[in-house]
Amino acid sequence: MVDRIGGSLAAGELRAGDVLRLEDVQERYAVSRTVAREAVRVLESKRVVTSRPRIGVTVRPMSAWNLYDPQVIRWRLASPGRAAQLRELAELRAAVEPAAAALAAGLAGQGVRQELIAHAQALTSAARDGDSEGLVAADAAFHRVLLAASGNGMFAQLAEVTEELLKARRDLLLLPERLDTAAVRRHLDVAEAVAAGRRAEAAEAVRSIVESARDEVERLLDGDATLA
């Protein structure tokens, strides 16, 4: 129910400033009053609507939404505005992950270093075998560990955002037919730089990864009118 309403909001079928009564929600989505009320409560927690007695349920502008919420990200990726969401996610990664890598190189213990190397090796194997599912899983795990290893709790919570982007590239067919093995190998460069405590080198290797991924998404978006 929440996904159905959220999808309508992200698609612009319900616009900022639109006001619905709870009865409208029940009728529009053919649900009970209890379900409608609970769905509105969840949507309020994501800041996409406000609900006031004698006024109703008011749709908030997208700028007020919790845009870091993985469910909100999925709504936007399923909407006609998916290209803008993909670009925003790619730009966020490019801004944050190099800094996270530099911090991780100064803080990471042996256990974290071993995890990064293991995920980088799994990523390399998946790329070699043409296994896109395995590649996305290993890539998401690698960046989750890296962000957490930064010691910055706010960076760590961006791991879910990164994972949604990686899944979206797979689901929207925005992975190249032939995977870039050089880009994949750079994950090993990151792991080795972090393990050696080389902060600048770790940051530069991550920057190369995320900027390459961003450029590739842009090329694929430019070539697919259905995603523009």
Protein model, in words:
Strands 1-3-2 form a three-stranded antiparallel sheet. The chain is built from eleven helices and three strands, in the order αβααββαααααααα. By secondary structure, the protein is mainly alpha-helical. InterPro entries: GntR_C, TF_FadR/GntR_C, Tscrpt_reg_HTH_GntR, WH-like_DNA-bd_sf, WH_DNA-bd_sf. Keywords: DNA-binding, Transcription, Transcription regulation. This is FadR family transcriptional regulator. Residues 1-62 form the HTH gntR-type domain.
Task: Offer a concise description of the structure.
The protein is mainly alpha-helical.
Helices and strands, in order, run as HEHHEEHHHHHHHH
User: How are strands sequenced across the largest beta sheet?
Assistant: 1-3-2
Total of helices: 11
Query: How many strands, what sense, and barrel or not for the largest sheet?
Result: 3 strands, antiparallel
Question: What do we call the CATH homologous superfamily of the largest domain?
Answer: GntR ligand-binding domain-like
Rg over CA atoms, rounded to whole Å, is 20 Å
Record field, number of beta strands: 3
Oligomer: single chain
Beta-strand content estimate: under 5%
Taking the alpha carbons of the first and last residues, their distance comes to: 28 Å
By helix and strand content, what is the structural category?
Answer: mainly alpha
The third-level CATH topology of the largest domain is Four Helix Bundle (Hemerythrin (Met), subunit A)
**Judging from the principal axes of the Cα atoms, what is the shape?**
elongated
**Architecture of the largest domain, according to CATH?**
Up-down Bundle
Q: How many domains is the backbone divided into? A: 2
The CATH class of the largest domain: Mainly Alpha
Please tell me the overall pLDDT.
89
